[in-house]
Automatic annotation (TrEMBL):
Top-level taxon of the source organism: Bacteria
Biased composition, class Polar residues, residue ranges: 36-55, 64-75
Keywords associated with the record: Signal
Entry-linked PROSITE patterns: PROKAR_LIPOPROTEIN (PS51257)
Source organism: Methyloceanibacter caenitepidi
Entry protein name: Lipoprotein
Region (Disordered): 35-78, 102-123
Signal peptide: 1-22
Amino acid sequence: MTRYVSKCAAIFAAAAMALMLAGCDDTTSDSDAGMESSSFVGSYSTKDTQGNDMTVTLDEEGSATGTQGGDNLTGSWKAEGDTATITWTDGWVTKITKEGDGYSKTAYKDGKEEGSAVPAEKK
């Protein structure tokens, strides 16, 4: 009888753990936040804070690549409502925001906005 109760307790504990882990999944989809992240996937042509040409490419897995003044950029991105926030490995953050039928780009260094928003054209 004790062995039976121990086995039942172990099964119950395993089931409770499985339910708890399942509850840890993020149930908020990007569409609930205003825009699906897949809508940001693609390449953008824009300008950097000095007015030089800049490209940004966002892939489906959350990786970001780009070019700026001949330098290659790498980082990661995530959708936050109507904005894709890109964190570059050099510490800069770029935000591409959907505005009506177009996009704009803003840049941040050390949490402070650098320059002003500029258009970003999705290719």
